[in-house]
Prior knowledge:
By secondary structure, this protein is an all-alpha fold. The chain has one domain: Formate dehydrogenase/DMSO reductase domain (Formate dehydrogenase/DMSO reductase fold). 68% of the residues lie in helices and 2% in strands. The chain is built from 14 helices and 2 strands. It has helices at 3-29, 44-68, 79-102, 110-113, 120-146, 156-167, 170-177, 190-216, 223-253, 258-267, 272-290, 297-320, 335-338, 347-370, and strands spanning 377-379, 389-391. It is globular and about 65 Å long. 43% of the residues are buried.
Amino acid sequence: MRKGNAITLGVFSALTILGIVCWVLQLTRGLQLTNLNNFSTWGLYIIGFMLFTGIAAGSLIFTSSAYLFKGMEEYKPYTRISSYVGAICGVLAAGLFIIVDIGNPERAWHIISSANITSPMFWDTIILLCYVIIGIYFTRQLMIVQEGKKDEKSLKVISLVAFIAGLAVMVTSFVFALQVARPLWNNPVQPLSFLAAAIVIALSLLIIIFAILNKSGYIVMSRSHLKKLGILAGSILLFELCVVLGEAVIGLYAGSGEESNISSWLVTGSGAPFFWVEIVSIVLGAVLFLYKNPATTVTGAGVSIFAIFMIKYNLLQAQLLNPLITYAGPTGYNASQASLGVYIPSLIEVGVSIGIVALGGLLVLIGLNKLNLGTGFKQNPTDSPITHLRETS
């Protein structure tokens, strides 16, 4: 193992341990260590769940697209990495965020034992399980093809299945969109918004990973390959901008009413700083992606990941802190006071979340080292700079 890999492995391991310590504290002392309450019932953990579910789904879409669409064929050499990173590590992190959000992990099995097939949460769980199975199988088949034991044509069926499974991330949005009592969530555009966010965050993460692996020599990828992914992600990010602005404008237009109050809180009220940070990050990410200089692509990927985080962050707090029905309880748990504040994760929540992300990074690093997902590439000497790669048998 190279010295750089050893250091990275040590950092990820230390952060994972930090996350475990924070989780143990949460388990022993309760969710009171978080800043979740009667209003903010969903916070950083659910945001993490949405982000990593999106990474898993978007990675499956990217991986399968290389074998389904001619315009994406040039990315075939990198699909083993994207399949492993997204569908395996992404799903693991998403699942762990749900476990820590439950508070009592011993009750996690009730999701299956007391399943309600009419609940979107049940189908969301089924989709995550499918992502694990499809991801493992797809990654293994890609490795077999790379080793020359199977023909590439054998990947057509699993590619189609993986692509459809990736699109099924829209079901995650039903957990929000089907809540009639939540006007900001009860919106028919949510499924498309969730799909767009999944593709953007998956492509952004893959761009960063590909850039790091290219620099280390693990793979060979030209700037033009990265830029093409950036342009695709940037274009979809602009769609997200239209959704966010459209929801705000429509909500404010009426001037009164439930959705108008929520939009006012978000755009001009206590949530305004978060909203405008979201808007700026979306615009900046799109500009960096679409700018003709390839050097801005990786920076745009980092900004875009933050932009998707803010979209999900505001989606939760704007609605949860402005409920239609007030709750009985002590001071601090009434609608008037909740509407004056904002949700800020506690240090325990941050620590647990960092630990989960670090564990995902740890698995990525181990997989890249042990599974040789980047091997089998040859440089075409006629390319200058390198723009095409082919796999060797």
